[in-house]
Every structure is written in C-alpha cells, then in structure tokens.
Amino acid sequence: MWEYDGNLDNTQVIEMVSDEDDNTSANKNSLKGQYANHFRVGHNAFEFIIDFGQFYEGNKKADFNFRTITSPAYAKELMIMLSESLREFEANFGKIEDLSNDA
User: Fold this and answer.
1) Dist. CA 35–CA 65, nearest whole Å
2) How many CB atoms lie within 10 A of CB 13?
3) CA angle 80, 85, 90 (to 5 degrees)
4) Is residue 17 part of a domain?
5) Fewer Cβ close by (within 10 Å): the C or N end of the chain?
6) CB 32, CB 56: distance < 8 Å
7) Dist. CA 85–CA 91, nearest whole Å
8) HSE of 91 in the Cβ direction (CA atoms, 13 Å)?
9) Type and span of the H or E element at 74
10) For the whole model, what pTM was predicted?
C-alpha cells in the first residue's frame, strides 16, 4: 500500500508500507535527505556496501557523501522494494528513460 508520509521542504515523501508490517518509528524531523545521482555498490561474503554521491558535468569525480552497509538478505529486500516502486511509478507517470550507456 502507498502512504504519504509527510511533507518535508515542500517535497512529498512517499513510503511503501505493508498493512501488516508498519512498525517504523523514525522521527520525521530527524530524517535528513541528500540528493544522489551517482552510486557505487560492492559486496563481500557477508555484506553489501552502497555508496551514494553526486556527480555533475565539469567535475572530475563524484563526491560520495553517504554509505549504507547491509546484509545480503536486506540488500535483496531493498532491490525488491525498489523494483516494485519503479513499476508503480512507471504505471502512474510513464516509462523512465534508461541512462546506461548500453541502451
């Protein structure tokens, strides 16, 4: 189910929650947003490491400013949630342009 989870700085935040598993307790005032358009993902036998950063034309390299470390099971859950969210987004707003060089 899609639920609007507040309004931060005139940006609507949407959180995908299941009816039977809404046990979140984050204080919305303590959540900080940071734009990311560049990502780096790595893994070892025990964890996935996802770096989030920004890259703009004219810069020689990306500035990474946030890292998430999680288990393989939670990385897979994140992938499933993102896939479901992207399908829903495209159903509502149209196809998202593929930014990869292989397209």
Assistant:
1) 10
2) 14
3) 130
4) no
5) C
6) no
7) 10
8) 6
9) helix 72-93
10) 0.66
Quick one: tokens of 75? 């990385």
Q: Name the residue with tokens 């897979």.
A: 76
Per-residue pLDDT tens over the stretch 8-65: 343 344 454 444 455 666 676 777 888 999 999 999 999 999 999 999 988 889 999 9
The answer to whether residue 74 sits within a structural domain is yes
Residues near 91 by Cβ (< 8 Å), separated by ≥ 6? none
Number of domains in the chain: 1
For 25, the token pair is 């307790």
Tokens linked to 1: 């189910």
Q: 103 in helix, strand or coil?
A: coil
* Structural domain for 68, as ranges: 39-95
